[in-house]
Every structure is written in structure tokens, then in C-alpha cells.
């Protein structure tokens, strides 16, 4: 071992920092530049910094009541009351809460699903839907390293980050038709058909983010048939089950169609929106396998991927979900509350459209009520959005995506008037 003197001889004191060789210890991170602001979170930062009493935030992807306040569901409060003082704080297994996973699979695959009974589903608790997507992306890279993922254009911006950081090459497929503000079904089907056989596709199960545009049931059936012909793998991100229509069964229809057609699927579930558990980070990743033996193997590998990431998932939110979904009374209350949230969003869509039409807007605003879920893809340009912010103190992402959760009976007329002013010369 080198003497202390020898070590010191290899080091030089420069000002206030030690230098080893030619590198100063104070300069290890001098090449690190500030990261660009998240386009969604940056909207909220700008909104909070605005002193205007008239400011409106329709950028946040979290539910608000008609007073613009965050909501904690009563079923969640009751579950917390039951948990308080009754549970220890020990680690969950790497795969998470077994009870929470069981209830999540019933919600996604059906209460009486044969796949659950046959133990053909590999499933682990995840850090909400984002964590489920990331676990799957890493699983895809590890076991099919030459594969790529096809992602809808547009999609939730973080989808691109997730598969990029998992080093899975990305392609896009056409999804949204700007002129009609609806689904570009012909182009979507063409892209599915032209993709190499056996490709991976990311699909939004319901309430597509950011457009609010979903395929119809018949269109889902056509998509499923083509996937069967092409042997494509469907990975569903289901962040809004129940929150889209108010009916969790209806919102899972796309997944059920693919299951009926004999597909093996992947599914990312989140309880952020439909139970308001945003900060609890509760989700589930599931993969339907050929048989029970394959499901055991796949689950073991998902747990191995999770281990160095975060070791095991958080406890509290998983208990909340388990209690709500396993108790008939609490589940019934949840179904009522999630319908109230969905109905308020649907009501605000109707009100925004009616206000715009009353103002005599020369544009068609039918797409506001044709779209579904938390977001309305308004069709406004970045310049128009900038005018909304600069002139009217209305904040949203520059792609024109309106979070309908931020629209209330108190601000809908003001919002409609502002939108009319920036779009009437279009």
C-alpha cells in the first residue's frame, strides 16, 4: 500500500480544491448542463408564479372538483381509517402486494377470467403506470434485445423517455387526424400492416393521452384481427380505467376484445387517476403467458429487473387499493365516486363546447364532446396557446391539450371567451 506521503505527492492543492493529476475534484460535474423543463410540469410552475387573480390552469393532469380543488375519495379515506394502526411497515415482496395484484387482474382481465384461474398471468406491483411501462421496456430489451416499440403519434411525452432510457429503439405509427380532430384509422391500419411481423405496439386502452380520441369497439375489433394476422404484440397502457366513461368494464373493452381473440398481451395499470392516488404511486404490470410455468418464469424475471431499480414497491397505497377492491361496499362506493369524476369531466366538455358555440365561433367544436377522458386536444396552435397565456393568464401545454379537470362552472365562460378570441381569425 502506498504511503500517505506518496499519495499526497500525486495530489496538488489548487485554490480551494484538490486536483488529482490534471482533474480538479471540484470539476467532476462541470460538463453537466441543466435539463430542459418537463413540458407538463413547467406549465404548473409558470401558473404558480403568475400573480393574476384570473389565472386558469388547464395543463395539470390531475382531477379537480368544481371549485378547482384536489379531491380525496371517500372510499380512500375509509380504507385509510381501516389501515391506521393495524399494519406493520415491513417490506413488501419484490413483486409487491399479492392481494393488490389479484384485485388489479380482476379489474383488467375480468372478475371471472379464465387466465387468472389458470395462473397464466405474470404480474407485479409497479410504481404506478409509469413504473409498469418502464419495467416492461427493460424486460423487452433484456429478452428481445433486437426488438423495437411502435408508439402512437402523438402520445404521452413520457412514453418516449421510458423506452429511450431502456434503450429500446422506437418507431411511431399514425394515430390522430388533425383536420377532423379524430382518429386517423386508415393510416393507423396501414402502419400496423406495414410494420414487420411480430412488432411491439404501445396502445392506449382508453382515454388516449393527449388527444382523448379512442377507436370505436368495431375499430378495436379490426385492429385486433390485423394484429392476429401480423402476430404483433399489444402492450396496453391503461391509466384511466373507470375515469374515462365512469364504467371500468367499458373502459377495459379493448383489452377484453384482444383477449377474446386469443392474443397474449401486456398491460400497465395505474390507480393515480381513477382512485386519486397520484402520490402513492400504485400500479400493476401484467403479461399474459402461454401457461402457468411460463408465467412463473416471466414474473421471476420482472422481479429481478425491479430489484436493482427500487428493491420493492411502496406499501401504503397498495393496501388502500386492496381494501377498496376486495370489500364489496367500498368497491361499490368507489364505482359511484369514479363515475362522479367522469361525469363532471363529460359535463365540462359539453359546457365548453356550448359556450364557444354561443359566442358565434366560426369553427367546429364537436371534437370537444366527441373526445373522452381527462384531456381535450383542442387543435389550437402553439402561437394561439401563447396568446392564451400572455393575454388571458390561461396555462396549458403548447400542443393545445386542455386538461378538462381544470375547467369549472366558474371559469368555463372565461376560458371559452379567451379561446374564441385567439381562434376567431383562424
UniProtKB/TrEMBL annotation:
GO biological process terms held by the UniProt record: amino acid metabolic process
UniProt-listed InterPro entries: Aminotransferase_I/II_large, Asp_trans, NHTrfase_class1_PyrdxlP-BS, PyrdxlP-dep_Trfase, PyrdxlP-dep_Trfase_major, PyrdxlP-dep_Trfase_small
GO CC terms in record: mitochondrion
Gene3D superfamilies cross-referenced by the UniProt entry: Aspartate Aminotransferase, domain 1, Type I PLP-dependent aspartate aminotransferase-like (Major domain)
Additional notes on this entry: In eukaryotes there are cytoplasmic, mitochondrial and chloroplastic isozymes.
Oligomeric and partner information: Homodimer.
Protein name: Aspartate aminotransferase
Amino acid at each position: 500500500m502506498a504511503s500517505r506521503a506518496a499519495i499526497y505527492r500525486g495530489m496538488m492543492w489548487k485554490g480551494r480544491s484538490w486536483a488529482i493529476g490534471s482533474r480538479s475534484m471540484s470539476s467532476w460535474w462541470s460538463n453537466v448542463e441543466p435539463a430542459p423543463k418537463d413540458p407538463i410540469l413547467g406549465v404548473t410552475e409558470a401558473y404558480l408564479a403568475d400573480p393574476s387573480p384570473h389565472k386558469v390552469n388547464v395543463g395539470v393532469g390531475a382531477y379537480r372538483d368544481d371549485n378547482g380543488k384536489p379531491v380525496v375519495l371517500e372510499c380512500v379515506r375509509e380504507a385509510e381509517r381501516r389501515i391506521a394502526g393495524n399494519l406493520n411497515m415491513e417490506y413488501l415482496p419484490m413483486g409487491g402486494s399479492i392481494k393488490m395484484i389479484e384485485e388489479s387482474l380482476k379489474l383488467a382481465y375480468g372478475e371471472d377470467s379464465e387466465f387468472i384461474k389458470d395462473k397464466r398471468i405474470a404480474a407485479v406491483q409497479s410504481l404506478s403506470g409509469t413504473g409498469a411501462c418502464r419495467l416492461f421496456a427493460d424486460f423487452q430489451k433484456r429478452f428481445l434485445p433486437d426488438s423495437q416499440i411502435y408508439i402512437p403519434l402523438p402520445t404521452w411525452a413520457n412514453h418516449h423517455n421510458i423506452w429511450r432510457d431502456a434503450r429500446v429503439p422506437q418507431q411511431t405509427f399514425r394515430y390522430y387526424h388533425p383536420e377532423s380532430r379524430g382518429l386517423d384509422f386508415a393510416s393507423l391500419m396501414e402502419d400496423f400492416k406495414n410494420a414487420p411481423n411480430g412488432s411491439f405496439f404501445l396502445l392506449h386502452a382508453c382515454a388516449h393521452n393527449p388527444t382523448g380520441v379512442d377507436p370505436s369497439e368495431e375499430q378495436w375489433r379490426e385492429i385486433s384481427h390485423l394484429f392476429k394476422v401480423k402476430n404483433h404484440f399489444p402492450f396496453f397502457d391503461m391509466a384511466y380505467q373507470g375515469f374515462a366513461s365512469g364504467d371500468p368494464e367499458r373502459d377495459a373493452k379493448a383489452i377484453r376484445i384482444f383477449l377474446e381473440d386469443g392474443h397474449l398481451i401486456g398491460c400497465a395499470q395505474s390507480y393515480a387517476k381513477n382512485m386519486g392516488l397520484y402520490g402513492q404511486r400504485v400500479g400493476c404490470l401484467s403479461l399474459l403467458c402461454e401457461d402457468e410455468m411460463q408465467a412463473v418464469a416471466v414474473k421471476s424475471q420482472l422481479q429481478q429487473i425491479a430489484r436493482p431499480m427500487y428493491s420493492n414497491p411502496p406499501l401504503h397505497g397498495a393496501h388502500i387499493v386492496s381494501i377498496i377492491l376486495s370489500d364489496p361496499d367500498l368497491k361499490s362506493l368507489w364505482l359511484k365516486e369514479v363515475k362522479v369524476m367522469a361525469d363532471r369531466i363529460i359535463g365540462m366538455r359539453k359546457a365548453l363546447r356550448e359556450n364557444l358555440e354561443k359566442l358565434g365561433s366560426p369553427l367546429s367544436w364537436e371534437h370537444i364532446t366527441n373526445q373522452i377522458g381527462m384531456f381535450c386536444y383542442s387543435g389550437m396552435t402553439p402561437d394561439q396557446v401563447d396568446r392564451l397565456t400572455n393575454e388571458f393568464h390561461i396555462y396549458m401545454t403548447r400542443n393545445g391539450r386542455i386538461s378538462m379537470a381544470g375547467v369549472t362552472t366558474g371559469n368555463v365562460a372565461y376560458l371559452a371567451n379567451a379561446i374564441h378570441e385567439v381562434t376567431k381569425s383562424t
